Amino acid sequence: MQRLKKDIKSMTLAQLKEDMEGIGEKSFRASQIYEWLHVKLARSFDEMTNISGDLKERCKERYFLTALQAIEVQESAIDGTKKFLFALEDGNMVESVWMKYKHGNSVCISSQVGCRMGCLFCASTLDGLERSLLPSEMLDQIYAITRLTGEKVSNVVVMGTGEPMDNYDNVLRFLHLLTNENGLHISQRNITVSTCGIVPKMRQLAQEKLQITLALSLHATTDEKRRKLMPIANRYGLDELIEACAYYFKETGRRITFEYSLVGGVNDTPEDAAELSKLVKSLNCHVNLIPVNPIKERDFVASTHEKALAFKNKLEKSGINVTIRREMGRDIDGACGQLRRKVIHQ
Ligand code: SAH
């Protein structure tokens, strides 16, 4: 029944205006409701005080209003990072993370319930894909966190559970709504979308010419090694992946971020660092090294701090822009998908 109603929080302002006019309402009513949804972050039609009782009732009949329920919040005692577990309307759950940095607050959102990409070190994919998230369900992770923390979000990373390029249309609508001047109006430059490397979709995204950052989860420097960590590497080889990254830069002028999880004894040797430099040198890029966050279902271990530093130095010597990602919230089921799994398998 609910699903027969329109998902109002996923509609653009133009769509909402058209829809309102279709039921004989003035288009400024759509602007008022849009502001309630995307600026004042209303969670029900009843909160909309400048909307008449009659219109509220008509809205309730016509639309469903996504409002995620926080069912667990964990706060890191180390750095204040907060991890939220949200319940969706159908009983599924997703995780989001709130991180406080000097330059502002950042939220890491999920794009799917589960994931079907099968990366071996990742907890999000262990139960496969349940379903993709609607634009409203991605937005509401940010809206709910803004309400709960009482603080403004300035940066958004689509790096939680799920593969955003496997939910392309919804992610694109989400990006439009999030950056729209009539909504939260987050700058495109403050948004990063991370992919395991679905080449045709990366190229399609390049053509949208958005100013968002594209992060590619690389994790290995040869096809053979990459296939052992990421099944998607059987579909797309490193050559075409790097070409797609160059194309993204050409179309958007945005520097690519390469994510490289350092797995002890697997991809963290000086030879790996040399190969990585060779692979990405021709590109305008940034390399983000992430000591792998061990999950109990697999026996991968993080590289030692010394190895990570040596790896970083070697890249720097070849003129590559590189950082080691600060590990936030280690003490709170940090790795993607761990909190959701803990709750659904308890
Ligand atoms: N599917 C997308 C985005 C979600 S994963 C992607 O693959 O990029 C976000 C990032 O976290 C990816 O770089 C992913 O490879 C990495 N990641 C997943 N599990 C991890 C773990 N246990 N330790 C370190 N990084 C991990």
Keywords:
346 residues; alpha/beta; DNA polymerase, domain 1; TIM Barrel; two-stranded parallel ribbon; 14 strands; 20% strand; binds S-adenosyl-L-homocysteine
Give a verbal description of the structure.
The chain is α/β, with parallel strands linked by helices and 346 residues long. It folds into 2 domains: 2-64, DNA polymerase, domain 1 (Orthogonal Bundle); 69-339, TIM Barrel. It contains 11 helices and 14 strands. The strands form 3 sheets. Strands 3-4-5-6-9-10-11-12-13-14 form a 10-stranded mixed β-sheet. Strand 13 (285-291), helix 10 and strand 14 (322-324) form a beta-alpha-beta unit. The longest helix is centred in the middle third of the chain and has 15 residues, at 135-149. The radius of gyration is 21 Å and the shape is globular. The protein starts with 5 loop residues before the first strand and ends with a helix. The model has no long low-confidence stretch (mean pLDDT 94). S-adenosyl-L-homocysteine binds at residues 117, 119, 121-122, 159, 163, 194-196, 217, 259, 261, 290, 292-293, 295, 335-336. Residues 117, 119, 121-122, 159, 163, 194-196, 217, 259, 261, 290, 292-293, 295, 335-336 line the site of S-adenosyl-L-homocysteine (SAH).
